Amino acid sequence: MDYVIQQTVNALSLGGIYAMLALGLAIVFSIVRLINFAHGEIMTVGGYGVFAATVFGLPIPLAVASGVFAAVFAAVAMERVAFRAMRGASVVSLLITSFAISEILKVLFQNGISARPKPIQLPAALSGSYEVGAITVGVIPTISIVTTLLALLGLTLFLRRTETGMAMRAAAEDFEMLRLLGVRADRVVAAAFALSGLLAGIAAVMWTAQRGSVDPLMGFFPVLKAFIATVLGGLGSLSGAILGGFFVGAVEVFSQAFLPDSLSPYRDAIVLSTVIAVLLVRPDGLVPAVKVDRS
Amino acid sequence: MLSVTGLDVHYGPVHALKGVDIAVAPGSVTALLGANGAGKTTALMAIAGARPVTRGAIRFDGRDITGMRAEDIIRLGIGVVPEGRRVFASLTVEENLAVAGSLAADKAVSAARRAAMMERFPILAERRTQRAGLLSGGEQQMLAIARALMAAPRLLLLDEPSLGLAPLMVDRVFDLIAELKAEGLAMLLVEQNVPLSLEIADRVAVLANGRVSVAGTAAELGESEAIRGAYMAA
Ligand SMILES: Nc1ncnc2c1ncn2[C@@H]1O[C@H](COP(=O)(O)OP(=O)(O)OP(=O)(O)O)[C@@H](O)[C@H]1O
Ligand SMILES: [Mg+2]
């Protein structure tokens, strides 16, 4: 029983990270129809942001802020430098552009920083665990779950209550119409990228806290899972991305925890097979996106 | 107030508008009529900056707005009620208005305008927290008009606001257009309902296959066969 609960905590913590990454992808896709392959590098930049702060011996809250800020900056700069000029380009051109950015950034990390993992020192208190009754729960997974829930709550409030949030929802439905109301497209798109960077930054902090290091490929695998989560949830659907993220996290953790060791090399295959099975039944994903197609 | 001269628009190989001239005088209504596919929507969207213009000039209040971005044109004081209404279905009625009000200088102005719209359109006030996608066609049309008015435009572009509405609702829409005209708002009205449009319009232009085939005052054209002829042509 203990073990099941511990694994559930792990599944929620990992799923939460996937959910935040998937949400960032979904927000950007819903508005600019860009499947951003460089999202993983935004996360990696966040990881290096944390690393830089620890190198300078800054306290934890500042290291967290540094990681999140670095990711937001990377996302906004990416939009400004590369994607803005390509507004309205085909989905394929955008996709290839994001591939190129992803590759360039990876090379920059490898040659500019190091190809090898950089360790991140965390205070001992964080790497510990605590007891609830007879159950041992890790501190970091707990923080990770709480943070994810707060981030999701904050995002929901932002999208529901603020004018920018409403504009983003409207843009996901019919961007041209939004512009025909005088709302500046550039601002809405910049906000979407900033938000995706914010979520990737939070995910990066959680990830580095659990792994204790950062390397040039850090963002690659979690974002790959997040891609799967967005497709599973329904491309462009925000609630679908969240659901998909937790689903992928759960399948991954539980398949590792409860399947015989001999099957562990097939973990990713199991995750993907499950996803394919779901998509066969629901081709538009778990929660299909609302969108008006006008072309 | 608005003058369009020699306007050309292409969709790839399709030459949708060929040297179109349209004018709207301050406080007046110009009706733009024509058969399906004549190019009415294209003309309206080109004026609003949402279709690329290949030739010609669009001037608003004497200022050349050709090639400007849609959002900048709208900000000069042009409102758009698009074909098919295009309300944001997953947003509530109030949110639809709030999004449109976000260019008002401050929140108080936006809130005041929203309140004014609720007063003017009691149906919207009743449905304020409902998703726009759940409204009836007529209600959605009212919302689309209210949304365009949120920015307090000086010129309103309306694309077939009566399309697909029940007769009672058609009358309401036209009453509203008459009211707006009485308040001094200039309008360019694309319509299929010729009799009602002729009643409300000062000037009329008829598009056929991307060209203006007939143009003149509503009084001149009201009697003529030219309008019916243009409709039958395509
Ligand atoms: N996005 C587009 N791509 C290619 N061709 C288009 C596009 N939009 C319109 N057209 C073509 O341009 C011409 C004018 O279309 P437009 O929609 O402006 O006509 P309309 O007068 O508004 O017709 P309706 O009364 O049906 O609304 C038509 O031949 C149409 O097929
Ligand atoms: Mg049309």
Distance between the termini of chain B: 30 Å
Using the coordinates above, name the CATH class of chain A: Mainly Alpha
Order of helices and strands of chain A: HHHHEHEEHHHEHHH
The residue ranges of chain B in which pLDDT falls below 50 over 5 or more consecutive positions are none
What would the average pLDDT of chain A be, to the nearest integer? 90
Spans of chain A of at least 5 consecutive residues whose pLDDT stays below 50 are none
Name the features.
heterodimer; A: 295 residues; mainly alpha; ABC transporter involved in vitamin B12 uptake, BtuC; two-stranded antiparallel sheet; B: 234 residues; 6-stranded mixed sheet; 4-stranded antiparallel sheet; 26% strand; binds adenosine-5'-triphosphate
What can you tell me about this protein's structure?
The complex is a heterodimer of chains A (295) and B (234). With 295 residues, chain A is mainly alpha-helical. Chain A has a single domain, classed as ABC transporter involved in vitamin B12 uptake, BtuC (Orthogonal Bundle), CATH 1.10.3470. Helix content of chain A is 73%, strand content 4%. Chain A has helices spanning 2-32, 39-55, 60-83, 91-113, 124-127, 139-161, 163-179, 185-211, 220-233, 238-258, 267-281; strands spanning 118-119, 129-132, 135-138, 213-214. In chain A, the strands form two sheets. A two-stranded antiparallel sheet of chain A has the order 1-4. In chain A, a hairpin with a 2-residue loop joins strand 2 and strand 3. The mean pLDDT of chain A is 90. Chain B is of the alpha/beta class. Chain B has one domain (2-86, 153-232): Rossmann fold (3-Layer(aba) Sandwich). Chain B contains ten helices and ten strands. Chain B has helices spanning 40-47, 70-75, 93-101, 107-120, 122-126, 137-149, 167-182, 194-200, 218-223, 226-233; strands at 2-11, 14-24, 29-34, 55-60, 63-64, 78-81, 155-159, 186-190, 203-208, 211-217. In chain B, the strands form two sheets. In chain B, strands 6-7-8-3-9-10 form a six-stranded mixed sheet, with helices on both faces. In chain B, strands 2-1-4-5 form a four-stranded antiparallel sheet, with helices on one face. In chain B, strand 1 and strand 2 form a beta hairpin. In chain B, helix 3 packs across helix 4 (107-120) and helix 3 (93-101) runs parallel beside helix 6. The model of chain B has no long low-confidence stretch (mean pLDDT 91). Classes of the chains: A mainly alpha (295), B alpha/beta (234). Chains A and B meet through helix 7 of A and helix 2 and helix 3 of B. The structure holds adenosine-5'-triphosphate and magnesium ion (MG). Adenosine-5'-triphosphate (ATP) is lined by residues 11, 14, 16, 34, 36-42, 83 of chain B.
